[in-house]
Amino acid sequence: MSDESDQKAARGKGGEVHQQAAGEIKVLTTQQGSPIADDQNSLKAGARGPTLLEDHALREKLFHFDHERIPERVVHARGFGVHGYFETYDSLADITCADIFQRKGEITPAFVRFSTVVGSKGSPDLARDVRGFAVKLYTEEGNWDIVGNNIPVFFIQDAIKFPDMVHSVKEEPDRGFPQAQSAHDNFWDFISLTPESMHMIMWVMSDRAIPRSFRFMEGFGVHSFRMVNKEGKAVFVKFHWKPKLGLQSVLWDEAVKVNGADPDFHRRDLWNAIIEGDFPEWELGLQIFDDEFAEQFEFDVLDATKIIPEEQIPIRVVGRLVLNRVVDNFFAETEQVAFCTQNIVRGIDHSEDPLLQGRNFSYLDTQLKRLGSPNFTHIPINAPKCPVHHFQQDGHMAIYNPKGRVNYEPNSWGDGGPRECPEKGFISYPQEVGGEKQRVRSESFADHYSQARQFYISQTPIEQQHIADALAFELSKVKTPRIRERIVSHLLNIDQELASKVAEMLAIEGLPHPAEAALPTRYDLPPSDKLSILKNGPQSFKGRKIGVLMSEDGNAAVLKYLEAALQEEGAIYEVIAPHAGELKGSDGAIIKIDEKIDGGPSVLFDAIVILPGAETVNMLVSNYAAVRFVSDAFNHNKFIGYVDAAQPLLNKANIEDMLDNGCHPLNDEASVQAFIVKCRDLRYWKRG
Ligand code: HDE
């Protein structure tokens, strides 16, 4: 590896690190800068003799390799980070003195890390899981981290339960499996004994937990926070990230297959979109409310297992997050980034949510363990981009070491600085607190079922069925009957029909008694349409991808119309064929193949188009992967465009008699355009 000055020189020449100017190959060196003559052979006593301990180059190379790994995050180990910026739409000075919200059009650099929670670093992207949505905003007055998830509630109400909750869902300690799955006894045992998790369970069993892409999911700060203005007046706020491309999830059967076909599905999607210049965007929405609302709201705003429906407190959109740059080095940025909930800035403050309070200890502590030094803020990805002056010094890997004599405050050297500044500094909101010191859960946190029910009844029938199927799938992997039954007893407090469906799929005879509840379920909470994915469809195919199945002499004219229509829509396609390389279209022109059929199953695409040559369609008919490409797409309710020549393949896939309005014959420009308009619905649900 080149040293720092070498890297700078390389960068200065406009090149990447390691990129060499013509005729100027760099000499490989040790870490100490000593040129290496032979990097293929270790130093031996004779050609076939033992290796000598004296071989400093070998020892240094192995030593460094042995220490390449740092502890993976105990949760959210598998992540993917990218750079971007946040743009403030309008000044929010009336609500907060946070510098980032003072000026219309202010641009603040950002780094975002998406993650799954349960699996280890090498686990597949499409596990049924919560997704982390952590945003670091490098503001002019310090780093502000919104360490959120793609689900607005959490499993537990108090931080003291977090280690139990996480232990239960990770691999079981005796056997070390299952990996990246909640479908096992320990998790459901814990859940069945933790009724406060029921609302979260509804979300995690819904399609929210199997998103199609990071680009098509929402983000939430989860807790109530405070915003404080110049006069010291505070309001509560909840943070929402709304994807411009809308929401979209995959089906469970797709998730299972995607994990095999492309375990990096989500990260590849984000990487490709950014590399192609199709920068994903989210808008930051605030739910702003005051103490008066908090007092009369039917649940406690400090309880992280509750939402405030958007119908009750509408969202105010205040800016946008644009992700426009991939990392240069995964380890340096994505692995070493250290999010901390306690990284807040003047004008934003915590609330007394007991989950958030515990997190404020946990994140700093975890970074020390992971990164090995209190100087992790010296690592470029964690370093603020505004001036930093303090007297914290020394420690492992101290990179920025102040010069001169002063390392304490107050001092009388020079101008005596740096000094604290009450006008500019962070001041905690003086919330009045008091009471007896006690280990209790507030009674206002006691209703565990009403919002779980509200979430369930807000879904379309298709989404409700997915929740029932997911519960039955997960519980079918639980081997202990009493755990299954305990879950059904909770479901009875949420929705009778849901409980019965799940019990039936698990062949539980006779429903158990409903679980005892501290408070009865409120059946009067109205549905909230915003909680459904399908009720909030994007009405656009932008950012989506079509898989075009072709063989030699495939229909080049339709492909051209498709390319134009997709470009217009902001979507893309990939060509799939029985072999890799290239093929000749019907017009004789060469078409580049993106995936050989067994590497490009239809689960990787949002819709498919079948464009074989009339003489060569049998290459596809006799190919099992090609037949499944079509039948899977059909069974996954995808839109299918096809030319006449595709008929034998439709026959082989056994769908020729079932072609419906989601299957669209393509022959001219108009038919292709009409097909893309259909694709905006993302799936043809009527197929059943
Ligand atoms: Fe975390 N969480 N968490 N968490 N969390 C971590 O920090 C923790 C919680 C979230 O991409 C850890 O650096 C406690 C809620 C994200 O680097 C750790 C509690 C929410 C990420 C930790 C919670 C989150 C983490 C593991 C309950 C959504 C990944 C490694 C009191 C609002 C950040 C690390 C990244 C990571 C602790 C609950 C989101 C151990 C104690 C609720 C997105 O410190």
UniProtKB/TrEMBL annotation:
Residues 29-417 form the Catalase core domain. InterPro entries: Catalase, Catalase_AS, Catalase_clade2, Catalase_clade2_helical, Catalase_core, Catalase_haem_BS, Catalase_immune_responsive, Catalase_large_C. GO terms for molecular function: catalase activity; heme binding; metal ion binding. It catalyses: 2 H2O2 = O2 + 2 H2O. Residues 1-16 have a biased composition (Basic and acidic residues). The active site is at residues 76, 149. Pfam families: Catalase, Catalase-rel, Catalase_C. Keywords: Heme, Hydrogen peroxide, Iron, Metal-binding, Oxidoreductase, Peroxidase. Residues 1-44 are annotated as: Disordered. One of its GO terms (cellular component) is cytosol. Heme binds at residues 73, 113, 162, 359, 363, 370. Its EC number is 1.11.1.6. Residues 28-43 have a biased composition (Polar residues). It comes from the Bacteria. Its cofactor is heme. Decomposes hydrogen peroxide into water and oxygen; serves to protect cells from the toxic effects of hydrogen peroxide. Belongs to the catalase family. HPII subfamily. This is Catalase. It comes from Nitrosomonas communis. The lineage of its organism: Bacteria, Pseudomonadati, Pseudomonadota, Betaproteobacteria, Nitrosomonadales.
